[in-house]
Write a structure and sequence with these properties.
This protein has about 230 residues and is an alpha/beta fold. It has 2 domains: about 180 residues, Spore Coat Polysaccharide Biosynthesis Protein SpsA, Chain A (Alpha-Beta Complex), CATH 3.90.550.10; about 40 residues, no CATH class. Helix content is about 45%, strand content about 20%. The protein has an 8-stranded mixed sheet with strand order 3-2-1-4-7-6-8-5, sandwiched between helices. The radius of gyration is 17 Å and the shape is globular.
C-alpha cells in the first residue's frame, strides 16, 4: 500500500491548524502521517499535537518544507498550506495518479470567495503550465524524486513552490488532478484584491527575469505597503 506523509508549514496558524488537520484526516480514506513544521510564537504547535500531528521546528518556508520531508516516512510526500483544504478522498486521488505513473503533481485551485476575479484566476490552474503552479494548489511528489532533486531550494525567499515544480517536470511525470483544493482568500481581503494580484504578477515577472531574490522581496513588500 502506498503511504503518504502530509507536510504542513505553519507560521502562527493557531486559528486554522485544528480545522485543517481535522478536515484533512476526515476527508482521507486511509491513515497517514501528518507533520506540522512550525515557526512563530503562537499556540500552533500545541494545537497541532492535540489534533494528532507530529510537530517539528521549521523556519522560512523552504527550510520548513525540507525539514518536514527529512523526517517523513511516507513513500509519497504531500505538501499542504495551512490555509488550504484538500478535496474529499484526496489521498485516493493522489494514490491513483501515482500508481498510473505520475511521480508528482498538484490539484486545481478554488478560493473560498466567489469574487469573479478570483474565480477567473483560479480557472487557469486547470492547466499544467509552470507559470500557473504555486503552493496554494498543494503538491505531491514521490519521496525518492524529492530527494533526487535536493528538495526545495533553501536559498529562495519567494517563489520556492514554483521553482521546484519546474525542476520536477524535468525528471518526473507531473499531473494536475482534476479536483479542487479550497484555499483562503484572506491575503486578498487583507491587502486588497487588485493590489495583491498586481504584486504577484510583478514578482513572477521579476523572478523569471532572474532578478535577485532580495530585490524581489523588497519590491514585493513595498507593493503591499502602499
Amino acid at each position: 500500500m502506498v503511504t503518504i506523509s502530509v507536510i504542513i508549514p505553519a507560521y502562527n496558524e493557531e486559528a486554522n491548524i485544528k480545522e485543517l488537520l481535522d478536515t484533512v484526516q476526515m476527508r482521507a480514506i486511509g491513515n497517514h502521517e501528518y507533520i506540522v513544521s512550525v515557526s512563530g510564537t503562537d499556540a500552533t504547535a500545541s494545537i497541532a499535537r492535540r489534533a494528532g500531528a507530529r510537530v517539528i521546528q521549521g523556519g522560512l518556508r523552504p527550510v520548513a518544507l525540507n525539514v518536514g520531508a527529512s523526517v517523513a516516512t511516507g513513500e509519497v510526500l504531500y505538501f499542504l498550506h495551512a490555509d488550504t483544504l484538500p478535496p474529499q478522498d484526496w489521498d485516493e486521488l493522489i494514490i491513483e495518479a501515482y500508481i498510473r505513473g505520475a511521480q508528482s503533481g498538484s490539484f486545481r485551485l478554488k478560493f473560498d470567495s466567489s469574487h469573479i476575479l478570483l474565480v477567473y484566476f483560479a480557472w487557469f490552474t486547470r492547466f499544467s503550465w509552470s507559470v500557473a503552479r504555486f503552493g496554494d494548489q498543494s503538491l505531491f511528489v514521490s519521496k525518492a524524486i524529492f530527494q533526487e532533486i535536493g528538495g526545495f531550494d533553501k536559498n529562495l525567499q519567494i517563489m520556492e513552490d514554483n521553482e521546484i515544480v519546474r525542476r520536477l517536470k524535468k525528471v518526473s511525470t507531473f499531473v494536475v488532478i482534476p479536483k479542487e483544493v479550497i484555499t483562503s482568500a484572506r491575503k486578498y481581503h487583507k491587502h486588497g484584491l487588485y493590489r495583491l494580484q498586481f504584486a504577484y504578477i510583478v514578482i513572477t515577472v521579476l523572478y523569471y527575469c532572474r532578478v535577485p531574490q532580495d530585490k524581489i522581496l523588497v519590491i514585493y513588500q513595498k507593493q503591499l505597503s502602499h
